[in-house]
Amino acid sequence: MEHSDPIIALLGIGTAVPVNRLDQADTARRLAEALKETPDSARWAKRIFKQCGVETRYTCEPNLLESAADCRYFPRNSLEDVPSTANRMETYKRESVPLGLEAAKKALLDGDVEVSTVTHLITVSCTGQFLPGMDTVLAKQLGLAATVNRIPLNFIGCAAGLKAVCLSRQIILGNSSARVLIVCVELCTLHIQPSSQRESLFATSFFGDGASACIVGTPGPDHKAIFQLGKEHSVLLPDSANEMVWELGDHGFDLYLSPSIPKLIGSLIPNQLEQMFAGGGNPDLWAIHPGGRGIVDILRERFELTVEQVRPSLSVLRDYGNVSSATILFVLQEMRRELTGDGSGPMSGIALAFGPGLTAEMIKFKYLPAAVIQEQQLSGAGV
């Protein structure tokens, strides 16, 4: 970053989850009961539910808390009562906007940003669609200007939240007075499949629902702790297009996740990060999207990270599951909470997220406590 570039930062972060809480052990027990006619699948489901690193998740669908016999999403002999894709999209349309609105209001309050100053709205989701879209509804309900530049990023997977952050930085590099509101809403549990197949059970084991939002802009001298954004990097990894597949089905979206994904990330990402670090050494902070426990573990191994360095990612996975595109902002919020609680000084970091393609999105950042923001602005130093 050149000294003439504006300081661009995450000024505020907000998150929201539905009221329905899924306990992992209880969900595994009820699912195993639904799979009693296929005992091998039941045993496998119990094992993967225990090993995936999730203890609690949230869902917009209260039926997912019902008994095995009454849950319409669990495996059953007949598909007659299983919610269709149209049924699931009706639920998505009803439940997505309130969650996104809650997260957006929290982000605006957290960043002390007036609604009238928002110039761009980026909405992100891969778990549902409707028109007029969530971007138009949120713009009206938040009271954004009718002329706000709306950019929907739809159906591009778990990496999309970080993609939106990188895009926001590019927008502000071209117009330093711009302020970008990003709202990510994912209702992943709507796509739980009534299947005893391992691929479906694996996806069922760790995805959760939630929303996250952030404000990206140039900070004032009175802002509290922020993440200053630096160089971003996006790459389509070779020979991996079929490792993560997300298709429309008659009963929601059908997701396939290859068990080879952590190994591929572990072998391909180090070279990409070495290019970003340019021999400057590894950063202190690692905001890794916990697409699964295996992804965090392989990166921890490859870069010799400490337990503390991956704790924000694993804490979010434990408490919320994988919330697709919304997850990276949950991780950054948790990281900031730890850093402010510890009274930490400025620290360098890297954020990473992965999605279909396989795609990797990365951005360098620096944590700046409130006490040094004004000094940082005056010096013009970058990340």
Describe this structure in words.
This protein has a domain of 153 residues: Thiolase/Chalcone synthase (Peroxisomal Thiolase, Chain A, domain 1). The model has no long low-confidence stretch (mean pLDDT 92). With 383 residues, the chain is an alpha+beta fold. It is globular.
Task: Provide the descriptors you would attach to this structure in a database record.
24% strand, 383 residues, single chain, alpha+beta, 13 strands, acyltransferase activity, transferring groups other than amino-acyl groups, 9-stranded mixed sheet, Peroxisomal Thiolase, Chain A, domain 1, two-stranded antiparallel ribbon, transferase
Question: Topology of this structure?
Answer:
Elements: E1 9-16, E2 20-23, H1 24-34, H2 39-51, E3 56-59, H3 85-110, E4 120-125, H4 134-142, E5 149-154, H5 160-174, E6 180-187, H6 198-204, E7 209-217, E8 226-236, E9 244-249, E10 252-257, H7 261-277, E11 285-288, H8 293-303, H9 307-320, H10 327-342, E12 347-355, E13 359-368, H11 370-379
Parallel strand pairs: 4-5, 4-6, 11-12
Antiparallel strand pairs: 1-7, 1-8, 2-3, 6-7, 8-13, 9-10, 12-13
Helix pairs in contact: 1-2, 3-4, 7-8, 9-10
